[in-house]
Design goal:
The chain is of the alpha/beta class and about 375 residues long. The chain folds into 2 domains: about 180 residues, Glycogen Phosphorylase B (Rossmann fold, 3-Layer(aba) Sandwich); about 180 residues, Glycogen Phosphorylase B (Rossmann fold), CATH 3.40.50. The strands form 2 sheets. Strands 3-2-1-4-5-6-7 form a 7-stranded parallel sheet, sandwiched between helices. A 6-stranded parallel sheet has the order 10-9-8-11-12-13, sandwiched between helices. Helix 2 packs across helix 17, helix 3 runs antiparallel to helix 4 and helix 13 packs across helix 16.
């Protein structure tokens, strides 16, 4: 039996979707005889993904022809194998397979925050048509949180396919860095943060609420004598919709000397940043799951997090939760935690425990169970 996975968006992503490569690895490790047909664009990058010889890579163009022509017989079986289930991992359904189909919907952010995603009514109509395609094609719809599932109902969207909630996992690259106090100080010095720093990692776009983050940091700096920097990691060129250029936001607040932009960084480097930050701040307005707060927790960094959308479900009681609306509240919370070593320690311990609740192995097992339902 072959399970086909659409990896086009996953493989080209430099953001959260790329974490789903861990799902492919764990599906491959399951004790089963199934083959994975991995559908990719010709320029896809799968560095670091070690799969078994029984799995195969298929170009998206070829897969599209084969999936739409189920009667091509031997050629189809040779190229794709005996496909029994097709899984679109990012909600982008670009074919109507003749086999049972699973679609993962990560969130409905474009409908929750249309002003950040659509410039015209036509763009919103196109998105809604694509969502309609998901509902028409899918035999099972997977959401990554109960919150995302509930949003379907609150927005009046009623797919015929059964809904299943399957949480995502945490990349095993994220764990507390094993280093000495001196090594940690040296790392901070190397990134320009001798006196410590607050940290944000994630998308650089309107829904991540970076204007509030910068406003809160400006208040924080005014109220403390210790010159802790604010460090931001993320690619500002991927999807800057819904906000001014990041450099302009920083300059408007006079924070050019206090904010450090790392850009995109590798996971080993990111682990060291998480492990050496005083606090991780995540004021996002909309998340279907929320990888970054969990990664920070897995590295032993205390988290201050928005209470919007799925984030309270994801982080549980292991983070300081705040409304994503008032910079003064965020600044005060950061100051209190910086000064309260015991509370920071409690958040670290809760975070490490919370992070252990999420694994890609469990995600793979639950999804494989859904595939089995459809056979």
């Amino acid at each position: 039996m072959t399970i086909a996975l659409d990896l086009r968006e996953v493989a080209r992503s430099t953001r959260g979707y790329r974490r789903m490569l861990n799902l492919v690895i764990e599906l491959d490790r399951l004790d089963s005889s199934e083959t994975l047909a991995l559908i990719l664009d010709s320029n896809s990058d799968l560095k670091g993904v070690d799969l078994s010889p029984r799995d195969r890579f298929v170009s998206a163009a070829r897969a599209l022809r084969m999936l739409r022509r189920p009667l091509v017989g031997a050629a189809r079986r040779l190229l794709l194998g005996d496909i029994r289930v097709m899984h679109f991992l990012t909600g982008d359904v670009w074919a109507s397979p003749s086999c049972p189909t699973v679609v993962t919907l990560h969130d409905l952010a474009p409908l929750d925050l249309p002003e950040l995603f659509f410039d015209t009514a036509r763009e919103e109509a196109v998105y809604r048509r694509r969502l309609g395609t998901v509902f028409r094609v899918a035999d099972r719809i997977v959401t990554v949180s109960d919150t995302s599932q509930a949003r379907l109902e609150l927005l009046g969207l009623s797919p015929k396919a059964p809904l299943r909630r399957v949480y995502q996992g945490i990349d095993p690259a994220f764990h507390p860095e094993d280093w000495t106090v001196e090594a940690r100080k040296h790392f901070r010095r190397n990134i320009g943060c001798d006196m410590g720093f607050l940290f944000y990692c994630g998308g650089i776009d309107g829904r991540k609420n970076l204007s509030l983050l910068l406003d809160a940091y400006r208040v924080f700096r005014e109220k403390t004598s210790t010159p802790r920097k604010l460090v931001l990691a993320g690619d500002p060129n991927v999807s800057p919709r819904g906000m001014k250029p990041l450099g302009e936001l920083i300059a408007e607040r006079g924070l050019e000397r206090d904010v450090i932009l790392l850009g995109w960084v590798s996971d080993p480097f990111l682990r060291r940043v998480y492990s050496s930050a005083a606090l991780f701040l995540y004021p996002s307005r909309m998340e279907g799951f929320g990888y970054s707060p969990l990664e920070a927790m897995a590295c032993g960094c205390p988290v201050v997090c928005s209470n919007a959308a799925a984030l309270p479900e994801t982080v549980g009681n292991a983070a300081k939760l705040l409304p994503p609306t008032d910079p003064e509240t965020w600044a005060s919370a950061a100051l209190e935690l910086i000064e309260d070593r015991e509370e920071r320690g409690r958040l670290v311990e809760r975070g490490l425990t919370r992070a252990q609740a999420f694994s890609w192995k469990r995600t793979a097992e639950e999804l494989f169970g859904i595939y089995r339902e459809l056979l």
